[in-house]
Amino acid sequence: MTKPVPTIEPATQVELEAQVFRRLVKHLRERTDVQNIDMMNLAGFCRNCLANWYKDAAQDKGLELDKLQAREIIYGMDYEQWRDKYQTQATPEQLEAYELVKPKEH
Questions:
Q1: Among residues 21, 34, 83, 92, which one has the fewest Cβ atoms lying within 10 Å of its Cβ?
Q2: Residues near 105 by beta carbon (within 8 Å), at least 6 away in sequence
Q3: Which strand (E) or helix (H) includes residue 47?
Q4: Does residue 53 contact residue 105 with C-beta atoms inside 8 Å?
């Protein structure tokens, strides 16, 4: 039997979530071997999804942030630079699997 989840104050919860998010982004920046298409096929989201969610959150707060700016925040570099340096050509199998799971807006 697990212990009950402790009560966490809202401000502390936001701090914890921010720390977890920063750790996730750091992890994804370090794991350049993990391709976005594989993340999409396995988890239903990728680095670009995180960037889109970041952009949406910024816009909800009245901040002007476009897609490429949000991607630079997530990737830690210009998106085109990351693609040129780390992205591999998707296989036909990866593309086929992606067609089954791709979101309507990506």
A1: 92
A2: 52
A3: helix 47-60
A4: no
* Maximum Cα interatomic distance, the chain, rounded to a whole number of Å: 49
Three-point CA angle 56, 61, 75, nearest 5°: 45
Residue 18 identity: A
- Among 23, 28, 53, 52, which Cα is nearest to 38's? 28
State pTM to two decimals.
0.89
Decide if 67 contacts 55 (C-beta within 8 A): yes
Cβ-based neighbours of 31, under 8 Å, separated by 6 or more:
none
Reading the chain (106 residues) residue by residue, the pLDDT tens digits are: 899 999 999 999 999 999 999 999 999 999 999 999 999 999 999 999 999 999 999 999 999 999 999 999 999 999 999 999 999 999 999 999 999 988 876 5
pLDDT of residue 102: 85
67-75 and 47-60 helices, crossing angle to 10°? 120
